[in-house]
Amino acid sequence: MKNKEALLTYLKSQNLMALSTSGEYVSNCIVYYAIDNEFNLYFISEPDSEHCKNIATNPHIACSIADTHQNVGDKKIGVQIKGTVQDVHGIDKLNTIIDLWNSTNPGIESVISINNFRNKIIKSRAYKIQPLEFKFFNEELYGEEGFETFAWYTDGKLRSISEFQKEFF
């Protein structure tokens, strides 16, 4: 449980992710993101971008998050994520996501606003990543080259794979 909280704390401390999608071609991009307490990640992007066109035909993604200020000799920390993406519809949901995104990525609230979405002043849409698996690299927690994998289980809980194996096997 403690390591799951460390994962969420780390993800909340960052705001850039490398997002990989696959459609007619493979695409990779960097997006600003925000995360909620249920481990859903949100980003805002234009639907005409290559990665969003890919998402429209294949919602399966992979992404990586790492502190770009880490020195090569530092203890490494970062996350690899597998999941699915959907674009978000509905003013109430959109408003909540925009507030969360702007609080994580301050400075352009006048651009990324519910009014600009509603009035189609910007072409961007909000997207939600529902993670299926997190691979949390954290040499401080797990030692050199150490990591822990977390996944969603049929009971709807995010658990460490090693925790799950101890509990059920």
Task: Describe this entry's structure for a reader.
This is Pyridoxamine 5'-phosphate oxidase N-terminal domain-containing protein. InterPro entries: Pyridox_Oxase_N (IPR011576), Split_barrel_FMN-bd (IPR012349). It comes from Candidatus Wolfebacteria bacterium GW2011_GWB1_47_1. This protein is of the alpha+beta class and 169 residues long. It has one domain: Pnp Oxidase, Chain A. Helix content is 30%, strand content 37%. It has 6 helices and 8 strands, in the order αβββαββααβαββα. A 6-stranded antiparallel beta barrel has the order 1-2-3-6-5-4. The longest helix has 14 residues. The radius of gyration is 17 Å and the shape is globular. The relative contact order is 0.18. The mean pLDDT is 92.
Strand content: 35-45%
Strand line-up across the major sheet = 1-2-3-6-5-4
Mean pLDDT metric: 92
Shape: globular
What is the total domain count? 1
Q: Which range best describes the helical content: under 10%, 10-25%, 25-40%, 40-55%, 55-70% or over 70%?
A: 25-40%
Q: Tell me how many strands there are.
A: 8
Give the N-to-C terminal Cα separation: 19 Å
CATH topology term: Pnp Oxidase, Chain A
